Amino acid sequence: GQIVYSIAEETESGASVGNIAKDLGLDAATLSARKFRMITSSSKQYFNINASTGALSVNEPIDREQLCELKSVCILNYELVLENPLELYRMEFKVLDINDNSPSFPLSEYHINMPEFLSPGARFTLPNAQDLDEGANSVQNYTLSSDEHFYLEMQIRGDGSKYPELVLKKALDREQQATHRLVLTAKDGGNPPKSGDVPVIVAVLDTNDNAPEFEHSVYRASILENSPSGTLVVQVHATDLDEGANGEIRYSFSNTTSADLQRMFLIHPHTGEVTVNGILAVQRPLLEMLIEARDNGAFGMSSTAKLLVEITDVNNHGPEITITSLSSPIPEDAVPGTVIALLSILDKDPGENGKVTCQIPDNLPFQLKPSLQNYYSLVTSELLDRELISEYNITITATDLGSPPITTQKTVWVQISDVNDNPPVFSADAFDVFVEENNPLGAFLYQVSASDLDIGENGRVSYMLRNSTVAGSALTSFLSMNLANGSIYAKRAFDFEQLRSFYFQVEAKDNGSPALSAAITVNVYISDQNDNAPAILYPTSQNGSVAVEVVPRLADEDYLVTKVVADDEDNAQNAWLSYHLAHSSDSTLFQLSPHTGELRTTRSMRSTDFLKHKVVVVVRDHGDPPLSSTVTVGILLADTLPQALPDFDDSGEPTPLLNATNIYLIVSLACVSFIFAAFIFFLAIVRL
Fold first, then answer.
1. Distance between CA atoms of residues 194 and 187, nearest Å
2. What per-residue confidence (pLDDT) applies to 59?
3. Structural contact between residues 325 and 286, judged by C-beta atoms closer than 8 angstroms
4. Cα–Cα distance, 190 to 135 (Å, whole number)
5. List of E strands, 83-231
6. What are the structural domains, with CATH classification, of the chain?
7. Nearest-CA neighbor of 479 among 420, 522, 428, 430?
8. How confident is the model over 482-507, as a mean pLDDT?
9. pTM across the whole model
């Protein structure tokens, strides 16, 4: 038979592995008698069997990496031999790995040489780390220290194994950094994990990738026309960041420099000194040469610098200003930076005498910008407003740098065209219109006016009534408007007693595109006319009869007979009422208050006064012309209200208080009273 045991490496001595007797079904008591023994090809005896119990235990700790090295499966084979009878059993001990080894690299430091001309994406294989553990305890991943030029990427070989690669992420520049120090770290998958790292040093190899660079792109020098041969003009200097022959520099004139100038001047190939060689026989005051600096690399790189040599000259030419292009008029909504004109400014003098500065006044919304050589662009620098300034006279001043300088001026006339950027504006925040009632149909009421700062169609204003209602009716049933001039007309007669005021809105719109508009409120106040006569409210008459007031026969002076009450639907002075006596049957008996309408007696009543009186009261307003109403009041002198009121004829003649009948009644009443008094007196005497 065969039995398999598993045991972790480095298990301590004496640790139990199993019971061989039980596992093989043997009698433990017979093991010693049957002369058992364990046979193995290993040089060490790693296990023991207890002869009494059959217990299998560790005799010596096992180092799996030492025993099996890099094998993925580590197995120890044993044979158990028993006699009487002879039996043979096979035993396999599978040694399990533990994470007891850290990853390690073969070398303590790795060096990689990289030419600086490599493009991003270039790859370099990095060393694999070794870990004597197996499975998850072996190397699982790699990491690289942070660097902007490199990153790490894992690759898989055809046999499925992985290896790390160093990938160039950003182009190298030896002149900026010649050495890059990285750290490659390998980690296993144990718990806890173990790691090992190794420095990776990248050396950047130089290539001839830097051209010589002059200290100045332009060298300027000034010499006299009669300078002798050998006079130093200027010394140029260039540097090259490369090493060795790649950084050695030689100076010469560029092939683009004319042969005449190369004969007039010499340049030292090593020092860069430029000197005069012969007579300066030139007509131009400014000489331009290109100097080339070339290194000694295999593929020599070069750069050039300009040398400007000024031959002293007399400033005898002024700048010439030519307008090559002009856009006028320009719209007022042109954005800042809009090009208006293109100017060419040229000075025929050489050198400083031919250099020109150009400017315009600072208080203008324009500026000059250099364009091509000797050209300037006249552009807007601020927003324009035609309503403030509709045109500009721009004076361009060009001055050369000669001594003394010469100045030339030229004026450019720029017109500003209108855009619809201003809405109509009314002259007031609101308009108040006063109109008398009973106006004729079509009467002119008011003319609203709005102004627009724009011109042309943008400034042509039309008017319209905004839709609204007045007293429940459409506004257009009350008013009409002239669209062109803003005149407002009445379409109906107004009645102050029905409508005293109302308001509406007028919209003014220009004819621009898009049109701009504004609105204003118009308040209409209807003024009163004296078109209503006073209405008598009290006293009132029915069916044309005279109103009658009863007054005691012997009423005292200033007795209130009645109060005439009237109302006028008009307003203000047209409704101010005054009261007047137009007629009175006895002018000495009654008086009327002109302000209150109170009719009072002027004296006490007498027995001789007539019983009936008639007065006519006129109620008059203060209009122009005034209107009035009258009321006739009949006054009856009686102590009690009679059952039937007497008629007050139109003659107005008063009835006398003492007529024949009245005298008879008075005498009879006096006699009866006297007899009654005498009887009372008699009764009193009898009792006493």
1. 6
2. 84
3. no
4. 9
5. 87-96, 110-115, 123-125, 139-144, 150-156, 162-168, 179-188, 195-205, 213-214, 218-223
6. 6-96 (2.60.40.60), 110-205 (2.60.40.60), 213-312 (2.60.40.60), 320-417 (2.60.40.60), 425-527 (2.60.40.60), 535-637 (2.60.40.60)
7. 522
8. 90
9. 0.42
